[in-house]
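Hi, here's the filled form for the chain we discussed.

Project: internal
Contact: R.S.
Residues: 326
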Amino acid sequence: MHRRGVQVLGARLGLVSNNGELIRKPEYFTAQVQQSLLTDYHAIEEIPYGPDLDAEILILDQKEAPPRLLLGEDRVVTVGDFTALEASVLDRRYTLFGNLGFLYRYIIYALEKHHRTYTFHASAMLDEATGELWLIPGQAGAGKSCLLLAGLTRGFTVFSTEMTHLRLGDGGYQFFKGSLFDNVRVGNLTHDFPGAVARLGVRLPPVADVWATKIALDLSPVQTARNILESPPLRIVHPKVESGRTRPVVTAIQPREALAKLLFDSATEKHGQTVLLYECLPVPALDTPELARRRLDVMRALVDRAQIRSARATLCGPQNCLEGLA
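And the returned structure, exactly as it came back:
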């Protein structure tokens, strides 16, 4: 058997398989491609495999075996013909190690369960002039990337493109840096945010259809210098970006219970879902009533103790997505 230890923030996981190539594929762990876990997390660190791991994931690659997955207490066993499944899968994001697959979600679960670290499905950027962290929760397609790219034209730095992590401390709170690669439509760069392209100094690939093509854009050159922010003042933005809107409609998120619900929903979204891997292997939600209750308590505590300078929803177009928010 082949063994590997990986760590994301505090979560320490063991990967075990009779197929050593499967648990070390660069496309999932190190490459700058759409299915890479680096579009979810700041870093996937290599650690020794040992007895101090939070959980173990055992993958048995067996020819012609029907795929199945069993969830135990800090142990996962999955069996299937993963060599064949990896060769035939249509969307490589929805695989065991793809950026919308199983390990991605299990890391969120392990961070919560073992380290009381909570993960928002949210991008984040820092206004270096004011020290304000802009937290931008939103589901896929809501427009989080548009706000990030607009922030680059204002001189903001990138703290996370997709998942942003929170931990409460004694009277305060910490935010931890997330991913620095973002899957962005080429058209958003060429048509909506050429200023962001200029700041990044990137050369975009020639493509036949800029709106049908996404690239994994490296935003590390404009990342926030610090990996941990201690109790920063917050501006929270819940976006819905639609092309063709010439004027934004901005509304306050209130009362405070509504803001706590927004944050709870964002922190629950990914590991609260059932997901279909390889178009044939359903994996149930990883959430539990105990974790959900504790998560809600943390979101309410964050709303109570954080210096929230604004919390707003915006219905806007790409070019005006920051208007009325500060």
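Let me know if anything looks off before we file it.
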